[in-house]
Amino acid sequence: MSHQVLIRPLVTEKLSGQMEDGHYAFVVDPDANKTQIKRAVQERFPLAEIKEVRTMRVRGKRRRQMTRQGVRAGRTASYKKAIVTLVKGSEQIDFFENI
C-alpha cells in the first residue's frame, strides 16, 4: 500500500535543512488523506514515530519555450505534497540508504 500512496521523497535545498529538525516531504497520491499517508510512512519506515502530517496541493507552473516555429506554451504537472513531522528523539529517515 505504501508504494501506491507515497510516490517519491521530495528533496530540495530548503527541505534538506529541515530534515535535521525532523521534517520530511513526500510527493503523494492526490487522493490520499492524512491517515493513509501516516500509515504508508509507518509501513515504509517502521522505526520512525510520526507526530503530524501536513498536506498541500502544488499547482503546476506555466512554461513557455521560444522555438523557430514560435512560442510554445505548456504547464508542469500539479502534485500533492505531504510534510511529515517526526517526534523528537525518534529514528531519522534516511532517503539515501539504497543508493
Task: Supply the key terms.
four-stranded antiparallel beta sheet, 3 helices, alpha+beta, elongated, 99 residues
> Can you count the beta strands?
6
Give the neighbour order of strands across the main sheet. Answer: 1-2-6-3
List segments where confidence is low: pLDDT < 50 over at least 5 consecutive residues: none
* Overall pLDDT: 91
As a whole number of angstroms, the C-alpha radius of gyration is 16 Å
Commentary on this structure:
- The protein is an alpha+beta fold and 99 residues long.
- It has helices at 2-5, 13-18, 34-44; strands spanning 6-10, 23-28, 50-58, 62-67, 70-75, 79-86.
- The protein has a four-stranded antiparallel beta sheet. The chain has a two-stranded antiparallel ribbon with strand order 4-5.
- β4 (62-67) and β5 form a beta hairpin.
- The radius of gyration is 16 Å and the shape is elongated.
- The model has no long low-confidence stretch (mean pLDDT 91).
Topology:
Blueprint: H1 2-5, E1 6-10, H2 13-18, E2 23-28, H3 34-44, E3 50-58, E4 62-67, E5 70-75, E6 79-86
Antiparallel strand pairs: 1-2, 2-6, 3-6, 4-5
Quick summary:
The protein has 99 residues and is an alpha+beta fold.
